[in-house]
Amino acid sequence: MSEPLRKIETSVCKVDRKLGLVFMRAIVCKIDGEPYYDLGSVDESTGEAYADHISEEEMLEAVTDFMLKARTVKAMHAGGSRGVVVHSWPETAETAKAYDEPAPRITGWKVAVKVDDDLLAKLESGEMTGSSIGGRAQREKEST
User: Fold this and answer.
1) Contact at 8 Å (CB) between 84 and 73?
2) Could you report the per-residue pLDDT of 114-126, keeping only the tens digit for each?
3) The pairing of beta strand 34-35 with beta strand 132-133
4) Does position 99 have pLDDT exceeding 80, yes or no?
């Protein structure tokens, strides 16, 4: 894996109580042009720790599929639907260039979600620092 190996939270950036929206980063692909590896993940079946990296291309493909088929928000991967993704922006270096904008410092997927009142209150108060989507991924070992 290439540097930087660091953990950043895909946490709440802004809550708009009037609209009932929570704005957050859902996926981070690169920071300052370097691949980002999400540390601290643990495979529940084996207990093995790993670091995930999602390339901009993989993110764009997965986000497109998710937005067409699901858009579900959950409370940290548990239970049923607690809301829906209503705004989605998959930001890559290439899309920024296409819009004649400078390359973003952080690339990935930005979302605004509309969630139930209970989850909104927990995200707004900081009791919960993030939520999850109702999506699935298949991990593949990176060849070295």
Assistant:
1) yes
2) 998 988 888 888 8
3) unpaired
4) yes
